[in-house]
Structure formats: C-alpha cells, structure tokens
Amino acid sequence: MKGIFQNILRGIAGLLAAALLFTAGCAGTEEGAGKEGGAAGGGVGGAGSETGILGSYTEQALTLPEAVQAQGESSFPVIRLMDDGSIGLLDEMNGLFCSQDRGQSWERRESGALALLSAQSYISSLALSPDGSIAAVYVPLEGETEPGDAEEGAAEKGDGGNADWTPQHFWQNGQGERWTVPYADAGDPLNGLYFGNDSRLYGVSMSGKVWALDGETGTAAQIFEVRGICSDVCFTENYMAVFSDAGAALYDLEAGELKTDKVLDDFVADHVQKDAEAGVRSIVAAAGEGDVIYMALAGGIYRHTAGGSSMEQVTDGSRNLLGNPMSRFLGMAVLPEDVFLILYQGPQLCQYAYDAGAVAVPGQEISIYSLYEDNTIRQAVSQYQRMHPELYVRYEVGITGENGVTPEDAVKNLNMQLAAGEGPDLLVLDGLPEASYREKGLLMELDGLTAGLTDDGGIFPNLEAAMRTGGKLYSLPVRFALPLLVGNEEELRQSADLTSLADMAERLRQEHPDGALLGFAAEQQLLEALMPASSGAWVKENGEIDEAALADFLTQARRIYQAEGKGNAGNAAGQASEDGSGQAEYMAGAAAIQVARGDQRLGIGRLTGIRGSFDLLATLLDQEEDMGCRLLPGQDGYAFIPVTEVGILAVSADNAQAADFFAYLFGREFQDLDLPDGLPVNPASLDALLEKERSQEETASDSGYMIAGEDGDGEIFTIDVGPVSEKQAAMLKQLIQTVKAAAAGESAVENAVLESGPAVLNGSSTVDEAVAEILRKVALYLAE
Amino acid sequence: MRSKKNGIVREGKARRVFHSPLCFLAPSLIGVMLFSCLPSLDVVRRSFTNAAAGSWAGLSHYREVFANEAFRLAAWNTVRFTAVCLPLLVGLGLFVAVALSKVRGGQTIRAMFLFPMAIPAAAIALVWRMVFDAGGLLNLLLVRLGLLTQEARPDYMGSGAAFWVLVFTYVWKNLGYTVVLWLAGLSAVPAEIAEAARMDGASERRLFWRIILPNLKGSLYTITVLSFLNSFKVFREAYLVAGSYPDESMYLLQHLFNNWFVSMDLDKMAAAAVCLGAVLLGAILLLQRLWDRED
Predict the structure, then answer these.
(1) For an engineered disulfide with A641, which of A481, A678, B82, B251 has Cβ 3.0 to 4.6 Å away?
(2) A779 vs B262: CB contact, 8 Å cut-off?
C-alpha cells in the first residue's frame, strides 16, 4: 500500500517536473522570439516588415472644400453623417457642404442665414443635424442686431453702442425656417448645442445642465446634469452620451433616465485628465451601429458599447495624426464598415479605414528615450511615424508621473538598459548625465550627420559650435530658447555683462525710487532668471569650481536684488514651476508687457517661439518707441538655452533609420513647424517662420490676435498682436547670431546656488559664507 | 551470491543516500549560483574591463577608485559607522534583553521594541526631517527648555551631527530584533546551571559573566553578523532624509555606489564593489575564526 502511495507521489512529482520544464521551455521560446524581434527592430532593412502581421487601420488625408480650407486655423467646422448617407460639413463662414463619395468631393448646399449670422456675430458653438438643421450659440458683434433682422438692419452695422456679451441662439430647420431656441437663462447660458439622430435639439449649459429644447412647443426641459465642462456629445440608437473633462454620462433617451456606465466614465475621466496634464486635448466621439460609441483621443480610436463592460482599442494613435500633440480635434463621424472620419483644427480631415494588407506590427523599429515627456519629440515621432508606416517608432518616457518613479530611478533603469546593450537608438539628453555618457563613449559623434543636413538648411553655426565638446559634437538641440532682457533701449545699451546690469539696476533705482525694476519678488526667482547666462562660467575646464566667478555672480545678484528693494517688487513676470525641477520660466512677451505698461523698468524672460512669443514681443517693440531688448548679459557671455537636446547612441551608429529620424528632426519639414517649446535651430526654417508671420498682413486668412489682461488695479487692457515687422525679424536674427554659449551648467552646482544664494541676496549670509557652503555641497559631487 | 546481492543493495542505498541531499539542495543551489554567484563573478569581470567598450582595463579601475576622494571618505564613514554602531547595538541590546528577562510581563515591552521595524523607511525619513531640521521639533524643544537660543539652532542634517542622527536611526530601528535575539539566547541558557551556580554562592554579576555570557556565544556571533550586515541597510533612511548628496559626515559607500550608478560609472562601481565584498568576506571569516578558536 505504502509502495503504491509512493509511486503515486513519484508520478505527481514527475508530472510537476515535466510541467516546470515545459513552461521553462515556453519562456525560453518567448524570450527567443523577443530577441529576434528586437534584432529585427534594431537592424536596418531587415525582413521585419515581410514577416510582420498584416491588417491595420490606415490614415488617409481627405480634401476639404477649398473655401473651408482657405480659412485656415480660424475655421472650426463641424462634421455629421446626414440622413441621405452623405457627409455634412458645416463651416460658419462658408455654410454647408456635403459629400456623397466619402469626402472625395464636396458640393455646397443651402445654409440659409448662417453666413449672415457669421458676418455679424462671434459663433462659439455650431451644430448640424442629419436633416440639415443648423443651430448656433453666438454673441452679436458690437452694434449688430438679430440675424433675422440683419437684412433690414444692415445699415446699423458699425453704429457702435454698448456691447452685449450675453450668448444668443440661432436655430434653423432643414427647410430653412427660423425657430426660436426656448432658453433664456442668462445666468447659466447654453455653452453648446447638439442635434440628436432624430434632429431634436439639446443644449448643455455652462454649469453642466443638459436641456431638451423643443422648437415647436417652445419648451425647454432639463433632463440631467453632468460634471465638468462638456467637450462633446454623441447620440447612439438609444442613448445620449455627454463627454466632459470630468468623465462621461449616458442618458437613456427612451426611459428618460441616466444609465450608469462606469467603464466609459472612468475611461474618459482618466484619459481626459491625462491629456489635460500633457497640455493636449479632449475627446471627440461618434456613434456606430446600435449603441456603439467610438471615441478618438491621443491614444487612438476606442470602441465601447453603451452600458458594456469593455473598452476596445481600434487603432493606435501613436502611429498617426491622433497622437500628434499639436492635433486639436473638431469632430468625428463613423461611416459604414467602421470607417472613421476625424476632423482636426487646421482644418484637416482624415479617414481611418481598415486595410487588410497594411502592416499591423512593423518589423523594423527605432526607439527614442527621454526622461520627461517632450512635446517636440512626441510631435516628431507622430509625424515621422505617419511618413514611415513600415517602421515602428517607439518613444519611451522615463518619468510618466503614473508609477512614482523618481528621476534617479528612471536614470538608473536607463543605465541598466545601456549597460546591457539594449538601450534606445536616440536619447533626449535633457536631465540625463550627458557628460558621463559622452566620456564613456556611449554617444556617437554627429559631425558626419550634421554635414548631411547642410542641403536642408543646416544648423545655426554658432549654436552648433557652442554644443561642441573638445571640438567634437555629440548632441544637438532640436529647439532653443533665448534669455532676453527687455527695457528702455538707451538703458539696455549700457548693460554688457552682469556687473553692468547690476550698475544699471542701481542707477535706475536712484532715478526711480518707487516701483519695480525687474519685478522679481523672491530671491530664488531672481537667481533663476540670471542663471542661464552665467552658470556655464562656474565650473572650470578641469572640473573645479571657479570660486571667483561664483562669488561675483552672487555679489552682482545681491546688488540687483537690493536695488529691486525688498517689498518694493511688482508682479513677477513668471511663476515658479511646480514640477519639482526648481526651474521657473519667465516669458519674454510677458516681461515686455510689464515693461510696456510701466509696471517695471526692466524685464527678463525667455523667447521660446514665434507665434505667441516673439510676435507679442515684436508688436510691443514696434508700439513702444523707447522699448528695446537684448540678450541677457551674463558671466558666460551671451547664451542660449538648448531645448530637446538629442544624441544618438554609439551602438546605433549603423542604424540608418535612427540617422534618418535624426536628420528629420533637423530638416526643414519638422523645423518649419512653429512649436511652443523653442525656436528652430535651422536658419532656413527660422526665416520661413518669420516670413510667414511677417506676411500675415497680406494673406489676411490667419491674421493676428488679441490678448487681454488685468493689471494690478483691476483695469482691463488689451493688446492687438500683429504680424512681425521686418525690422523686428532682422533684430531676432541678429540676436541669434550673437549667442556664443549654451546655457548648460552643472545642475548640482545650480541647485546648490539656488539653495544657498537666497541667503546672500537677503543679507542673512555673506558671499564668502555662501560660496563656502556651495563648495561644501558640491564637493562630493565633484569628487565622485 | 547472497553477500554479493547484499553488496549491490548496500551500494544502491549509498548512492540514494548521496543523491537525496543533492535533490533537496539543488533548487536553492541553482538559485544561488544563478542569481548570486554568477552576477558576482560578472562584477569581478567588469571591474577589470571598460564598461562601454568592454576592453581590458587591468587594475586601472581599482587605482581610480582608491585615488577617488569620495570613495575614501565614504569608506572611512562606513567603517566609522560600523565601528560605532556595532558595539553600541550589540551591547545595548544585551543590556535591554537582560533587563527585560527579569521583568514580569515583558512581552508588551518586547513588542514595543519591535515597532520601529514595522514603520516604513519613508515614514521614518519624514519624521526625522521634522525632528532634526533647523526649525524642527528637537530644536523647538531645546529652545523651549532654554538650552538653545533661537539664533543658535543647529541644522542637524546639514552638519557633523548628521552622523550621530544616522547612528541613532540605526540603533533605534534595529534594537528590537537584537533584543529578541538576545532574549532567545538567554532563554536557551539551561536554568539548572544558573541555579547550581547560585547554590554555590555566585553573585548575579559573577553569574552573568561566568555562566550566562559564555553560553550566549552562539547568539553573539549571529547577532554580530546580522547587525554588521544590517548596518549597510541604513542607507535607505539616510538617502530618504538627505538625498544623494548628504552632509559629508553621513556620506556612505552606498551613496557613492548609488551616484556612480546614476552617472553610469559602472566600472568604478564594480571595482569598489569587489573591494567591499572582499572586506565583508574577510570580516565575517575573521569573526568565524575567532569564534571557532574560542570554542
């Protein structure tokens, strides 16, 4: 009996051992497959694409009506599937267009009084119903009357009068008859109007109340309320789905009650929040067959059945325009056979259709790593991926903010990958130990690659020269920012270095005993603002700290701070960032506004782009005769701030795709984009951007904009930002050519200065004591 | 025939006896070989090669490490920390254990001593920051008691006092389990021997030095080795309180290794790790030899 029992035990043990071996074998095979895939991805021109899985959604740009396209960024059309199966496109300026051939061609249809309404008012929300009804929320322009009276009252245009900013409503049915929107709560105006599939009209108010509006009976009934700000509404067969920045609500149109859909609500809440953090966009949605809801967001197109328990990803956003951080959704429509149309701001219409022959998982791969999310790289990856569907561009971010990884942990994880030879092909070096990687031979020399960029405009020679170490180039910034000093032109001429800047501050304080000078209320803010042009001078070539330079910096900073006068400072031009980096960013345009309004005598700020940054500065420089700007003087001469500094790993030196992506980053196509993170390093692209801004006056389609603000006394002021003048464009180019150094000081030294420096500025410590403390703090760092 | 058969049977049994322990040992042996021995050998290999290129570097990394000021400081601090903490913890633990063994209902107090082990390192770090900051609770208390003036408040974590804060943290955190180990050792001392000594007129002090302490040698070895190894774990608290670059008095080898890892100085790190491993191995072997000799 005992023997039988032992035999059974042996049998079980044998089976378990076999199972163990089998699973180990499976693991081995999987690992092997992974390695094979990795090798194929790392290699160039391999057969990866031939062996890749076929079948995926492909993106195709469709043509929009010429008149709509010509409106450019100022056009916000809406898209809708019409009753007759055509695609309807409603543009406030050009009316209704329909396409019977899936967006290949468009024919204009009657849109009644919409054109007149558009001419006489500012339309904030536009809706199109399947039967051709049109509704809008609008604010009449100054002196205008109701659109219905417009024909009679046309002569009144421009008569002036008190502006009424109360939103008003426009509703015109499919036959062109005007109806009144039965809603009049001025305290909680409607924010958006939406047509159901049966062409009934619904409105969502500012506070999130959803109203059913009946034009025939002239009644409005509140049916439910949503949290957050509504971004889109879609109607399935039985439900109305409302999407907001706080989640999604599902309303059963038959039963007249809200239906709980936690999957949808959580998904929208998570993704909208995530997108908002990255400064990106919200969601657009459209209904499919039955109660299927399709949603388009940065991650891709997702499918969900109302009330269902799953969320299915239909297409990956990272491989098309959906994942582009600059994309802004306007609308979405679902055609039969699950073909999706997505309308982007621009405007741009893209079709996403399943292609059985398209490669689902590309065999070739290049990978890019950055410590922090980098919008410039995200944009480049998205665009490059669209151009190369046969290639998978993997963008890995070290600190996503979701998993509690610290910068140090992320760098260590990356180092482990690098040590194992499994690192990415390209590194965004911002925040990474670049010097260490360079010294260890991990980074490839880029001279060969940059030589190839010459035909495509090249790179500013002085910027490239500043990035060289020992005559060799290991990294290049994709963009750059300029630290600028703004103030009276005559006075600025006298500040050639940090000492003369301090002299000027003291002189200005003598001449103007009251008011702010630079507007920095806190010691650390001032140190941060002055640092970019000086921190490079604090460490000698042999790696030792230059105590004299450090002492001089603190001395001059103290003089400026004391001149500023504690408690006498005005509004700071910028606010300290909250990401823990300790670096505050002050915008040159904002600093210029402070100076132009007389709130402070001088301003320090960074110039990070053309549109929204330099155009504002240029406008103010043109308007204010005495105002001028120059590069922020410092101990390191005139410096620029590298943004998105990219290097290629030496192990990827033979990877032609990585080299091609690198060339794309610095080529005209990508550099010509006006991105908010920095100016292009390609001189031809800068010229093109400036020319585009300068020629706005002539093209009129994308003219300037107005910014409004409130000063310290509560007074509202506005600035009409116009096109960049030739004089200012030339000034910017001249400034760029003047920079000689990259603001790339040792972060450990900078942090120590930010910790110990404030005590010097406020007089609680001497310069010598602070320098000694800084030396003590960085001694270990330097000794390592 | 019979004897031959018996002989075969005996041989088979012997083989089975030989194989059985191997079967039991194999899983852990394989695990140790794969996850400890092989990586350790790889570290030794890396200490003689350049991390990036993989080329032979000879002893250059070792020379670089010994010439490195940060390494010398960290090594000295680590030795100093171990030299201070080890006797302090072992002695204090024994003292408390002996005292507790004589207290009725000592279970609750023993449990209290184990509390620090249950507190997460991150929480401890937060408390220490609140206590030892220049504007922290300790200075507040001292100012209230009139032992300090408002202007002369020291920054404990930013001065030489940081070392003693670290010592305090280590002892506070590890005292509980040391006491428990000592108590286990004390309970294992045969009561008959102590009773016999008392009958012979031995005083409590004599009883402790001559009877109890010699019987605690085994516990002493275990506690010393464990405390020695645990002294390297105090880095967690030090790192969480003061970051990668603390005051130089509490800059330990683990700080250096951590920072070298971040800056990818893997070759230097490998050389330093080999040196540290050799020192640790030497110290443990020395302890064992001392114990064996005394036995």
Answers:
(1) A481
(2) no
- What is the pTM (predicted TM-score) of this model? 0.75
Q: Is residue B60 part of a domain?
A: no
Look up the CATH architecture of domain A479-642+677-783. Answer: 3-Layer(aba) Sandwich (3.40)
Alpha helices in A569-625 (DSSP H): 588-596, 615-623
For chain B, say whether A29 makes contact (Cβ under 8 Å): no
Looking at residue A683, its amino acid is P
Confidence of residue A112 (pLDDT cuts 50, 70, 90): confident
Q: What is the ipTM of this complex?
A: 0.76
* Residues A354-388: tens digit of each pLDDT: 988 877 777 788 999 999 989 899 989 988 988 88
All structural domains of chain A with their residue ranges: 479-642+677-783
Amino acid at B201: G
In chain B, residues with a C-beta closer than 8 Å to the C-beta of A408 are 244, 258, 262
> Using CA atoms, how far apart are residues A555 and B187, in angstroms rounded to an integer?
68
> Are the beta carbons of A436 and B248 separated by less than 8 Å?
no
- Shortest distance, CA B248 to any CA of chain A (angstroms): 7
Q: How many CB pairs under 8 A join A and B?
A: 53
Q: B202 and B139 share a domain? A: yes
In a domain, B197, yes or no: yes
- The CA angle A276-A282-A286, to the nearest 5 degrees, is 160
* Residue B211 near residue B197, CB atoms below 8 Å: yes
**Residue range of the domain that includes B2:** 1-47
Q: Which residues in chain B touch residue A650, judged by CB atoms under 8 angstroms apart?
A: 52
Looking up tokens 């070739």 gives: A364
Give B146-203 as a DSSP string.
Answer: TSS-STT---GGGSTHHHHHHHHHHHHHHHHHHHHHHHHHHHHS-HHHHHHHHHTT--
Contact between chains at B245 and A433 (C-beta distance less than 8 A): no
Instruction: Please report, for residues A141, A752, B266, the alpha-carbon distance to residue A115 in angstroms, rounded to integers and kept in the order given.
Output: 14, 62, 69
